[in-house]
Structure formats: C-alpha cells, structure tokens
Amino acid sequence: MAMQSKAWITTYLFKEFLSFFKGSILVEIFLTNRHLHILDGHGSHVTLETIEQAKKFGLDMIILPLHTSHAFHPLDIVVCFKPFKIIFKRERNTKMFSRNYIEPNKIASIGWVDKAFHQGFTCQSSKVQDLAT
User: Fold this and answer.
1) Are residues 16 and 67 in the same domain?
2) Does residue 18 carry a pLDDT above 60?
3) Which of 33, 40, 100, 125 is the most buried if burial means most Cβ atoms within 10 Å?
C-alpha cells in the first residue's frame, strides 16, 4: 500500500505501482506474453518515463480520452466491481442488522471485504442478477 497527502496518484506512485505489478506476475512477461492496462488520461500515467517503463515490463497501455472513464470503464459497470459491491453490502447488512449487532469497524470491514473479494472476483460472479437475489 502506498499513499500521499493528496487524494490523487502521482507519477512517482504510478511508477512504483508498475514495478509492484511486474513483480506480482507469476510468469515472466515477455513480448509474446504481454498484459494490457486500461487507464484514464491522468497526467501521472502519461509521461514518457512511465510509458517506457511499462513497455520494458511488457505492459501495453491504452489511455482513455479525458473525462470519459465513467463511460468506458469496463470493470466498474458489471464485470468485477458490481458483484463485489453486492456481496460486500449483503455481508455488511447481514452482520449489522442481525440479532447479534456488529459495530462497523476496521476489523469487521476486513472480513466483509475478504468474503466479497473471494466470492465477487470469479468467473461466475459476472452473473450479477444471480447475486442480487
């Protein structure tokens, strides 16, 4: 985890992320085994240094036009984050509104996030209608 005093990413943090991402891949990235990053047009993503670093790591970057990521962002709409949000809210509400009320705190939230992550980020989780029922 990394952070800075402002709410947005910096070029330094993005370069650190690229290094972390490269290190987290289980197989070596070669030109024949590339990965795609879809990014918004934030200035920290679009510097010569970060583009060269990504290319060296075998990462292809697609930069979305400015102020359009809400329309193009493929993960936020249905595929990953919606199932995650549905499962998280269901788990949170089950625990908070049960007879054994759980005060929302960091420890409880970690458990809710863990369960939502493991159930929400699967091939089957893209069936959002199944989760909503």
Assistant:
1) yes
2) yes
3) 125
